[in-house]
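Problem 12. The chain below contains 107 residues. Write out its predicted structure in token notation.
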Amino acid sequence: MSTVTRANLVEHIYSRVGLSRHDSSMILESVLEKISGTLETGESVKLSGFGTFSVRQKGERIGRNPKTGVEVPILPRAVLVFRPSQILRDRMNGIVNEAHGVDDADD
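Solution.
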């Protein structure tokens, strides 16, 4: 098992689309920038057949230092949440759903 990197994605775009590596990199960076910018504004990003990225606000709460047991306040913050689509969940579990048109032969 390996981690997918930006370089892997650029290479995949390059091999599939036939653009130069530089153009493939520019496309990937543009897409990632759009996703990041949208999330920064607090809006959700839905990629059909893949999942939804959204920002959730967590309120202030009291935590505990596990070493000392001392209570400390945890400040409110925004967290990124990913909810996979049913199609992606099915693919991860090896279920091919004809209704969704999922075909693993291309991957």
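Discussion. Helices lie at 6-17, 21-40, 86-92. Students who got a different answer should revisit the alignment rule from Section 12.3.
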